[in-house]
């Protein structure tokens, strides 16, 4: 049974009001009485009600965070960045997964709003411009992370994916590869388009041609999507010698398909991922990837949201903010010189 202020008051022999003032450290209660009441509260296992506090203050001290998939390891580091900032400021947060379904996402936003969260951070979900306009009608502060509608939002953060894939393409070209493929994610919308644009830019700058059949959009961004991409490339009469994948999970699936077919990575095929999820350093071979600063993105998203809902006195309406981040290439064992 939950311990209440009434229980503490009965134990201490004081009024409910005195207990309420004491646990809030109000000066109207003496130091000696406050200490005695707090000691009793601690002995009884009293936990203040966040709901009651929010009713009195008008603030819930809680945020909502929506991700595409909770089981995607990309989001674990991002969420850790969010959590570390919010804990410092005494905020709680609720997590939900949209599964890339806008109707589900809109329902989640509505539910979180009804639960009186003060703002919502939407991470890497394919919200279109029109969908974002609909979300804004709910009238709750939003921060978008790696979102298709970033330019439609006053507050957003995104990683420069085009720059990232440009660096990955250059790395393969420097290794002597001229037949390079891009394995995208059919469900990723703008993100896969930006990464494809970086690949094309790198090929164009090097004066290399891009064959249409070397660009393949896998059914999803999971290892299974990468495996199906591997099967596709292996059936080409003249497959690429190197393949840049939408993310690390697809790269892991691709390597599985290549190894299952009796090929060696990187002697026969070089494989590159994107995001640098924790397991990418422990695959065999270890995966060359682009290290997206996920933890820092989470931190900055949380800091941005706190600035919106807690503006400085001289800044009643915080200016709109769009933050772009850039990561770095991590060269490991899955890439090597082009085969002869």
Protein described:
By secondary structure, the protein is of the alpha/beta class. It has three domains: 44 residues, 434 Repressor (Amino-terminal Domain) (Orthogonal Bundle), CATH 1.10.260.40; 129 residues, Rossmann fold (3-Layer(aba) Sandwich), CATH 3.40.50; 132 residues, Response regulator (Rossmann fold). 43% of the residues lie in helices and 16% in strands. It is built from twelve helices and twelve strands. The strands form three sheets. The chain has a six-stranded parallel beta sheet with strand order 2-1-3-4-5-11, sandwiched between helices. Strand 6, helix 9 and strand 7 form a beta-alpha-beta unit. Helix 10 packs across helix 11. The protein is elongated, with a radius of gyration of 26 Å. The mean pLDDT is 88.
Please outline the helices and strands.
Layout: H1 5-12, H2 16-23, H3 31-44, H4 50-57, E1 62-67, H5 73-88, E2 92-97, H6 102-114, E3 120-123, H7 129-136, E4 142-145, E5 155-159, H8 161-174, E6 180-185, H9 190-205, E7 215-218, H10 223-234, E8 242-245, H11 248-260, E9 270-272, E10 289-291, H12 294-309, E11 321-325, E12 328-330
Parallel strand pairs: 1-2, 1-3, 3-4, 4-5, 5-11, 6-7, 6-8, 8-9
Antiparallel strand pairs: 10-12
Helix pairs in contact: 1-2, 1-3, 2-3, 5-12, 8-9, 10-11
């Amino acid at each position: 049974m939950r311990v209440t202020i009434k229980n503490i008051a009965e134990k201490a022999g004081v009024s409910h009001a005195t207990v309420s003032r004491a646990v809030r450290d109000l000066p109207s209660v003496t130091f000696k009485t406050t200490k005695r009441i707090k000691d009793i509260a601690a002995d009884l296992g009293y936990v203040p009600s966040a709901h009651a506090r929010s009713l009195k203050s008008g603030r819930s001290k809680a945020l909502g965070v929506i991700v595409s998939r909770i089981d995607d390891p990309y989001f674990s580091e991002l969420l850790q960045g969010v959590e570390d900032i919010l804990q410092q400021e005494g905020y709680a947060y609720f997590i939900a997964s949209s599964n890339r379904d806008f109707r589900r996402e809109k329902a989640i936003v509505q539910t979180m709003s009804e639960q009186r969260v003060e703002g919502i951070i939407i991470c890497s979900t394919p919200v279109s411009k029109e969908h974002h306009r609909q979300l804004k009608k709910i009238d709750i502060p939003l921060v978008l992370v790696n979102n298709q509608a970033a330019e439609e939002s006053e507050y957003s953060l995104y990683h420069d994916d085009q720059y990232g894939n440009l660096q990955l393409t250059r790395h393969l070209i420097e290794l002597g590869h001229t037949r390079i493929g891009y394995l995208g994610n059919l469900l990723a919308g703008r993100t896969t388009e930006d990464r494809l644009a970086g690949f094309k830019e790198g090929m164009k700058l090097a004066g290399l041609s891009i064959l249409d059949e070397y660009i393949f959009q896998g059914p999803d961004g999971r290892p299974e999507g990468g495996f199906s991409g591997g099967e596709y490339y292996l059936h080409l009469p003249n497959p690429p010698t190197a393949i840049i994948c939408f993310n690390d999970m697809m790269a892991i699936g691709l390597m599985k398909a290549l190894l299952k077919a009796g090929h060696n990575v990187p002697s026969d095929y070089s494989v590159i991922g994107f995001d640098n999820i924790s397991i990418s350093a422990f695959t065999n071979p270890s995966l060359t990837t682009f290290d997206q600063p996920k933890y820092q993105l989470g931190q900055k998203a949380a800091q941005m949201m706190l600035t919106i809902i807690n503006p400085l006195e001289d800044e009643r309406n915080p200016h709109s903010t769009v933050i772009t981040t850039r990561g770095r290439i991590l060269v490991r064992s899955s890439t090597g010189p082009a085969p002869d």
